[in-house]
Specification:
The chain is 44% helix and 17% strand. The chain has 241 residues and is an alpha/beta fold. The protein has one domain: Rossmann fold. Helix 4 links the parallel strand 4 and strand 5. The protein is globular, with a radius of gyration of 17 Å. The structure holds NADP nicotinamide-adenine-dinucleotide phosphate (NAP). The site of NADP nicotinamide-adenine-dinucleotide phosphate has 25 residues, from helix 1.
Amino acid sequence: METVKKKAALITGGARRVGAEIALGLALDGYDIALHYNSSEEDAIGTQNEIKSLGRECSIFRGDLRDLRFVNELVMVAFSTFPQLNVLINSASVFKRAEIKDTSRHDFDELMEVNFRAPFFLIKEFASLCQGGNVVNILDTKTARHQNAYTAYSISRIALLELTGFAAVEFAPKIRFNGICPGFILPGAGEDEAYAKRLESKIPLGRKGKAGNIVETVNFLLKNDFVTGQIIYVDGGENIK
Ligand SMILES: NC(=O)c1ccc[n+]([C@@H]2O[C@H](COP(=O)([O-])OP(=O)(O)OC[C@H]3O[C@@H](n4cnc5c(N)ncnc54)[C@H](OP(=O)(O)O)[C@@H]3O)[C@@H](O)[C@H]2O)c1
């Protein structure tokens, strides 16, 4: 009888929204899941139950990615729970709208700590423990332009985008690193129908995407073993307009 190789993925910010869809997509593809969350405990337990109902194992890990001690421990704990861990998805992020003149020191630090410093050290730890695997960084189509309303946020994502290439070179051929830049997929808190319509009018395909579009791209990147250091914009063409 053919034995199926066990595989497992660690997903940050996996309790809800896009992160949860990625976790469920990977579970459907046979991955056991180390699911990180911070404040969304109820959602994390709900997603964990859904993953288990698919016949996969799922452990949840709570922690604040601003805390570097927690960041350094997360990968180690995930590996001790799932020794077959071979995928890291950096999906957690904070989103703040502000031009330079309105950016507080607090918001600047939070953006850099959650969106760049945490993935940097998760990658460092993952690369030291993983014998062969993949990292996918979930970024943002805002990395393609100088959108002044989101300066510090965009720079925190551009830093991670650039890290994707550096890491792809440093850790090849053991680990492949790729990034996905979603466009408008799910509206954030406080973004109403009028806001959505305005955004959609700026997208060449004229509509928002679905979380499934991101899940499909994650699957593609994990399966295609000749792709590394690449960034795929899944944004209805927003970055080219
Ligand atoms: N949704 C979209 O349309 C869209 C568009 C462009 C890019 N993206 C990118 O796609 C990814 C997923 O999108 P999303 O909309 O699902 O993201 P989201 O809801 O904005 O955030 C994902 C998760 O990040 C976690 N997080 C935030 N601050 C944290 C902290 N200090 N410590 C630990 N975790 C923290 C939160 O976990 P808890 O809830 O557990 O606190 C949250 O659920 C993100 O990287 C986002 O930037 C999404």
